[in-house]
Structure formats: structure tokens, C-alpha cells
Write a structure and sequence with these properties.
Blueprint: H1 2-14, H2 21-47, H3 51-100
Helix pairs in contact: 1-2, 2-3
Length: 101
């Protein structure tokens, strides 16, 4: 799984799947954070035996997962509200143009 994700990040870097550079950057950051979470899960599963280190790795997993969820949630809200804010702005301009007449 980890190797497939790394190959997907490499593919994203070279492919032109996205219309804007921002969406490409967002997808690469998303997948990179996912790879870091996978590494931390591997560490937690079998490579860390000291209890203090296990707590640190577990906290890192929780923080990164929360950060990833929050970032994606904010982006989804922004993308969903963009058409509504555009309609609101155009209606306000239309009302101003009618008021000037």
C-alpha cells in the first residue's frame, strides 16, 4: 500500500490531470500526509517498543489525521460555497445597477 501511494504521488507530479496548479498541489500534499500517516502506523505496529515513544507516535497519528480531515473539510466547504457567493455578488451588482437608474 505504501509503495503504491508513493508511486501515485510520483505519477501526480508528472501527469497533467488537474486544471490548476493549486488543485495539483493540494492532491500531492494530501497524499504526502497520507504516506506520513502510513509510516507512523508501521512504526506503531512493530518498530517502537519504548512506551514513551509509542505515545508520541500515537499522538502524531491523531494530529496528522485530524489535520488532514480538517484541511479537506475546509476545502470542500470553500468549493461548495464558491458558486453561492458568486450568485450573491452578482445579485448585489445587479441591484446597484438598477438603483443607479
Amino acid at each position: 500500500m505504501l509503495q503504491m501511494t508513493v508511486f501515485y504521488i510520483i505519477y501526480l507530479g508528472y501527469a497533467s490531470l488537474f486544471k490548476t496548479a493549486g488543485s495539483k498541489l493540494l492532491e500531492i500534499v494530501n497524499e504526502s500526509v497520507f504516506v506520513i500517516i502510513q509510516y507512523l502506523l508501521m512504526l506503531l505496529h512493530s518498530m517502537v517498543w519504548v512506551e514513551g515513544h509509542r505515545n508520541s507516535v500515537g499522538t502524531g497519528i491523531i494530529v496528522l489525521t485530524s489535520l488532514l480531515l480538517a484541511m479537506n473539510f475546509i476545502i470542500i466547504i470553500m468549493v461548495s460555497l464558491r458558486p453561492q457567493s458568486r450568485k450573491f455578488y452578482l445579485n448585489r451588482l445587479r441591484k446597484q445597477a438598477i438603483a443607479k437608474r
